Amino acid sequence: MTAASIRTRPAVPEGVPNPSRNWLTLLLHDMRYGLISGARTPFPLVTALFLPLFFNVMFNLLQSGETVGGIPNVSATTATIVVFVVTTSGYFNMAIGITVAREKGVLKRVRQTPMPKTLHLMSRIGVTTTMAAASVLLMIAISMAAFGLEIRPLAVPGLLLSFFVCCFTSAALGMGLSRFIPTLEGGVVIGTATLFPLLFLSGVFFPVDLPGPLQTVVDLLPFAPMADLVRTAFDPGATGLAVDLQALAVVTAWGAAGLLFTLKLLRWEPRR
């Protein structure tokens, strides 16, 4: 490379990602922007951080000292709200967020930059996971201090693995769902209509007795295995790393399928 070629290379404006940077730098830069934008948007911030904490405290106060299926209520309740956080932050909010970004032309502009599309999508998953992690850590800290929640030290790696796999899968499925959402209003309706009935049928909030064939189908969908993963990690009677390997395999498969579907069929252009 000559001195002249170095002098004539155009400078990259300050604050704009340089395509010559490595992928990790670009990912962290994009995540930082996403976290700042998310912190300035009240609805996702409230639903991700404070609404789950309110539910957790309320249910623990109402059912203090009780057991659910042989598990202390504080453990069962915290596990349930963790699944709620993961699915609403990932599946629900991601589907709406992608739809809004698409219709406002944000995705179109991202596509025209040097930022790889896959990296931008992973950045969005990282932002969602970070916000969910903040909510879960706050909830666990308060449950330990106020309600005596106990987590076995050996179960912590299993809990972390289960949490991150569930966050990835939930966010990937939310991205895939955005392919079928025409508008923001449609996103709220479709997200609600697909998420909450499945959460109830999957026994996330309370045990549900379903007919055999329907139970088999529900067990193969992602939300029941997510609940099994998280509950196992919070179960004081679990042994070892407290990871349900069968549930982990199902959730991971759904996450991989959701990401592949998104990479192939995600709409980057506004519909209108």
Automatic annotation (TrEMBL):
Location (main, coarse): membrane
Provenance organism: Streptomonospora alba
GO CC annotation: ATP-binding cassette (ABC) transporter complex
Membrane-spanning parts: 41-59, 79-101, 121-148, 154-175, 187-208, 245-266
Keywords: Antibiotic resistance, Cell membrane, Membrane, Transmembrane, Transmembrane helix, Transport
Family: Belongs to the ABC-2 integral membrane protein family.
GO BP, sorted A to Z: response to antibiotic
Protein's name in the database: Transport permease protein
Gene Ontology terms for molecular function: ABC-type transporter activity
Keyword Isomerase: no
Taxonomic lineage from the root: Bacteria, Bacillati, Actinomycetota, Actinomycetes, Streptosporangiales
Subcellular location(s) of the protein: Cell membrane; Membrane
Bilayer disposition of the protein: Multi-pass membrane protein
